[in-house]
């Protein structure tokens, strides 16, 4: 897709990466700039670090940041991803390069819909307030269970 422009951000790309004239590289994007960086693109491509992918259930904060900005995310698959965002509706899963190509060919309404649903999900279920409420509920349930079985067995 030489007619398209791509921006890659991240410090872990090797020196011998196959750069092309339409691919721009930014080694580091400072956190205060993340929202404008995400919003400047039609999509965000998330490539999960191998250790995180192998562990599963370990999303990058960048997934939530991009989603909160309403930018559709194209991500590789890892165990548990579908518990954070619904594949095909709130996030696009790319298992092969052709999946990325298909996403880039989506129409504007589809792209906006995925971004909108991802944003709604991020802002209702993946905020620090939502996580704190989940933690409080877990602690409360554990305390109630402990009262019912004070000896632990």
Would you give an account of this structure?
The protein is mainly α and 153 residues long. It has a single domain, classed as Rossmann fold. 46% of the residues lie in helices and 10% in strands. It contains seven helices and five strands. The protein has helices at residues 34-39, 50-55, 61-68, 81-84, 97-104, 108-125, 128-148, and strands at 6-9, 23-26, 44-46, 73-75, 92-93. A three-stranded parallel β-sheet has the order 3-4-5, with helices on both faces. The longest helix is centred in the C-terminal third of the chain and has 21 residues, at 128-148. The N and C termini lie far apart (62 Å). The model has no long low-confidence stretch (mean pLDDT 93).
List keywords for this structure.
Rossmann fold, mainly alpha, 7 helices, 153 residues, 46% helix, elongated
Q: What's the helix and strand layout?
A:
Blueprint: E1 6-9, E2 23-26, H1 34-39, E3 44-46, H2 50-55, H3 61-68, E4 73-75, H4 81-84, E5 92-93, H5 97-104, H6 108-125, H7 128-148
Parallel strand pairs: 1-2, 3-4, 4-5
């Amino acid at each position: 897709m030489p007619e398209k422009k791509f921006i890659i951000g991240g410090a872990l790309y090797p020196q011998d990466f196959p750069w092309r004239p339409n691919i721009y590289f930014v080694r580091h994007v400072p956190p205060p700039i993340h929202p404008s960086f995400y919003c400047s693109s039609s999509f965000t491509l998330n490539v999960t670090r191998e250790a995180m992918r192998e562990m599963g259930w370990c999303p990058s904060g960048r997934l939530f940041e991009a989603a909160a900005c309403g930018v559709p995310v194209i991500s590789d698959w890892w165990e548990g991803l579908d518990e954070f965002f619904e594949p095909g509706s709130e996030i696009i899963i790319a298992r092969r390069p052709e999946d990325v190509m298909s996403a880039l060919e989506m129409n504007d309404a589809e792209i906006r819909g995925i971004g909108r649903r991802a944003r709604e999900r991020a802002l209702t279920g993946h905020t620090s307030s939502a996580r704190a409420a989940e933690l409080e509920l877990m602690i409360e349930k554990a305390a109630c269970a402990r009262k019912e079985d004070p000896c632990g067995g």
